[in-house]
Amino acid sequence: MADFVFPPAPQPSVAVAGEEARFPVRRIFCVGRNYAAHAREMGHEPEREPPFFFTKPADAVVDTDTVIPYPSLTKDLHHEIEMVVAIGKGGSDIDPADALDHVYGYAVGLDLTRRDLQGEAKKKGRPWDWGKAFDRSSPCGPIVPVAETGHPSQGRVWLAVNGEIRQEGDLDELIWPVADVIALCSQAMELKAGDLIYTGTPAGVGALQPGDQVEGGVDGIGEIAITIGEA
Question: Could you list the residue ranges that cross the membrane (predicted)?
Answer without folding.
Answer: none
